[in-house]
Amino acid sequence: MDIQPERDMLKDDYGNYYVVSNASGDSLTIINAALYYAFNQMIDEEFVAKARELYPNDVACGKFFADQVMEHIEELEKPESTGNIYPIEEVKKHYDLHVKPIYEDSFHM
User: What domain of life is recorded for the organism (predicted)?
Assistant: First the structure.
């Protein structure tokens, strides 16, 4: 199991997806995928233009980030993809996981 940051994703038993934001030895830092995308996007003119192009009608901004997660999942599900979506329970057998919640602190699993 060779998990790479920002490429691979984890999925829990509830259907939540996580992006690996950092990998160091047998330790992974993961963050909910929608939050990962939301906190890595600046709200600027380019963002607003892209959102207006994708969604001509008013939508919640969360839709934009949820769709980015779906695009990531779809890329990983392609046969030619070098990445993978791993079950979180399987990953926990091989790695020490550190989960980044919404706020700045993190907790350990």
Answer: Bacteria
Residues contacting 90, CB < 8 A, separation 6+: 1
pLDDT at position 104, please? 57
Q: E strand or H helix at 17, and its extent? A: strand 17-24
Q: Are 73 and 17 in contact (CB under 8 A)?
A: yes
Contact (CB, 8 A) for 31 and 18: yes
Strand order in the sheet with 96-100: 85-87, 9-11, 17-24, 27-32, 96-100, 107-108
Domain ranges of the chain: 9-102
For the four alpha carbons of 36, 39, 44 and 49, in that order, the dihedral sign comes to positive
| Chain segment 41-69, per-residue pLDDT in tens | 888 899 888 888 888 888 888 898 999 99
